[in-house]
From TrEMBL:
Superkingdom in the source lineage: Bacteria
Ranges of residues in domain FAD-binding: 6-318
Name of protein: FAD-dependent monooxygenase
Keywords, ordered alphabetically: Monooxygenase, Oxidoreductase
Pfam families, A to Z: FAD_binding_3 (PF01494)
Residues forming coiled coils: none
Amino acid sequence: MALRSLEVGIMGCGVAGQAAASFLADSGHRVSVLERFREPRPVGAGLLLQPTGLAVLRALGLVEAALSAGARIDGLFGENQKRRPVLDLAYGDLHPEAFGLGIRRSVLFDLLHHRLLASGVRLVTDTEIIDVVREGARAIAVDALGGRHGPFDLLVVADGAHSLLRERLMPAARAPLYPWGCIWTTVDDSQAFGAVGLLRQRVAGSTMMMGLLPVAPDKLTMFWSLPVADLAAHLPLDLDTVRDEALWLWPEAGPTIEYAVAADDFSRATYRHVALPRWNDGPVLFMGDAAHGTSPQLGQGANLGLLDAHALARSLAEADDLPRAMELFAQRRGPPTRFYRRVSHLLTPFFQSDGHLLGVLRDLVMPHACQAPLARPMMTTVLAGLRRGWFATDPLDAEGRYLL
Ligand SMILES: Cc1cc2nc3c(=O)[nH]c(=O)nc-3n(C[C@H](O)[C@H](O)[C@H](O)COP(=O)(O)OP(=O)(O)OC[C@H]3O[C@@H](n4cnc5c(N)ncnc54)[C@H](O)[C@@H]3O)c2cc1C
């Protein structure tokens, strides 16, 4: 018998938290979302949604709106400073109809937010949760002013990669900061990069990387890699150096770079490599980046969070008590999140680190791997979010869609 009508609290109104809230409210649970911002708002750069994330949006009835607002992405193409290909992967290898979607985070946020409000979820804003206390089998969230929220039968921690609650509630968790992060901005696609439908990257060694992701029919998100030391909030960004280096690395993108630097609207991002000893402690469950944050090198974080949300609703529907639902959730989400966390961690230094040899090695090996009979399909399934491990892949259906 399915678990129905639980009192559920979700901390964090981000991608994972909002999707989970809508799924759980649809299933008949009474859901409250607790968010620290006064006005819930998106944080972060444009996103690449994989067939996996698109399948979750389809299940929420949001995929058509996402497709019309975003930019279709058919593959990933990276070159080095000498214009030699480094990465060249196409979703079409998996299925002629398969693709990814570049989307502005604000658009994805609005879609999920309207869906959440329409699902009857109770939204509590301007409330920073700093602790959780147990009351028998239930959990109470405590905010920064001492307010108590709950008790909840299930309390979901979805407060992102830099989660404070993770430190507090799971001291054995590890979440070291990656030594490199990035700045990003979204600009007009005046040079029609979006017309080719590719996420494009340009790299020089492992210390210089720029990305251009089409995120709307006429918009691009530009990423520029920087060491964490250069991203400290109190330091001004050295945009003159960024401009000079970016123009050297990618002269053909000159007008886009000039425009982005002149607009001076860059945001900063750092990432963590998050590993938890387990997903839940009794009724307190971690999901999204709070549970498995990675570097964005593989473009999977939001997709994994969306899949978490769907898996949680499904696990609750299949179990007849909460411990069993938590077990089912961990079985479903453990293998793919472990795989993507590890592979992102393995690959990131080849693109973002001070280790100069790693860039050389990448330029020698990756182009061949992208064309090799066994490696290419493996790499394409990694990109599309289909891996459950080194030897297990989820299939696409007859129409090239991911099957939830
Ligand atoms: C530069 C960059 C590029 C990326 N590109 C991609 C990509 O192409 N594809 C992809 O899939 N992923 C990408 N990601 C990763 C993606 O952004 C994350 O995986 C995703 O946003 C995680 O969602 P989340 O809901 O777990 O956390 P978040 O979206 O971070 O949401 C957490 C929410 O919790 C709230 N909160 C925090 N602390 C508290 C508290 N104490 N109390 C109450 N509320 C709190 C926050 O305000 C926020 O609303 C990228 C990340 C970065 C940094």
